Amino acid sequence: MTAPFPHRPDIDGLRALAILPVMLFHLGVAGFGGGFVGVDIFFVISGYLITAIIHREMVEGRFSFPAFFERRVRRIVPALILVLIVSAVAASVLLLPYDLIEFGRSLAASALGLVNIRFLEGFGYFAGPSLTKPLLHIWSLSLEEQFYLVFPLLLWLLLRYAKGGVRFGLGILALASFGLGMWVVGGWPKGAFYLPVFRAWEFLVGALLALGALPALEGKTQRDWVGGVGLVLILGSVFLLDDLTPFPGWRALVPVVGAGLILHAGAGGGIGVVGRCRGAPWFSLA
What we know:
Layout: H1 9-26, H2 38-59, H3 65-94, H4 97-111, H5 115-118, H6 139-161, H7 166-184, H8 189-194, H9 196-210, H10 220-240, H11 253-266, H12 272-277, H13 281-284
Helix pairs in contact: 1-2, 1-11, 2-6, 2-9, 2-11, 3-4, 7-9, 9-11, 10-11
């Protein structure tokens, strides 16, 4: 039995801060042109949480690959199946025959956790026709599943054969992923957006924070300042970026660093700047 991860109100607040901009972006609300960065925030949170959990289990000798994947399946698959069924019913009523064929291909790819690969063949995330694809939002879940397939083994190998260099090894991989993404975003934007090799650094930022890559913050004032800077970075990306911005590339650093700062600020205890925002009516909607 896995011990539950300690409740973190700041992470709840950060999740809400990720969800709201994405929703408002897809609804076309003015001023939220960069709301798509909510996905990047989720990648950082995911990397942080999964690393904190499995690293503890590995160090204590309790980690099991089958148990890990069983937990992932139980957490992800039921909700995914429900979404796919509802989407299929709606698509059968609303889509034209050609669009229905395309939907069927995306449906199969979504069920296999490969829909991000499928979308490489079509329009980019921000292209007009993509806005009518009911399963477009599943791409990030597929990418996350692909990360989960590889990362536990990677962390296990580092702990076994390079125990003193785990953070160094993950840091090198994060820099390599970020560098590759920077290199391809201009010539192959869809690949930079959809493929895990170019997005892995966002998860790894969260992983490094979970492993204590930054020194602990002392005192509420220091934590609030760091969390406040993170909040400003995220809001700046939401309000200043748009669907014409080359992304991810270096611009993804802004929301990713912002999310990382908020997570780091909350690691010292308390509910943090973002955690305190959860009581606001506009925030609690998420």
